[in-house]
Amino acid sequence: MLDLSSKSRRIALSALTLGLASAVFTGCTTTGPQSTASAADKRQELNAAATATLSKLYEAAPQSKQLVAQARGVLVFPAVLSASFIVGAQHGSGVLRVNGQDTGYYSITGGSIGLQIGAQSKAMVVMFMTDDALAKFRNSSGWTVGADATVAVANLGVNGNIDSYTIQQPIVGFVLNNGGLVAGVSVDGSKISPLLL
Question: I want to staple 41 with a disulfide (CB 3.0 to 4.6 A). Which of 37, 66, 103, 139 is the partner?
Answer without folding.
Answer: 37
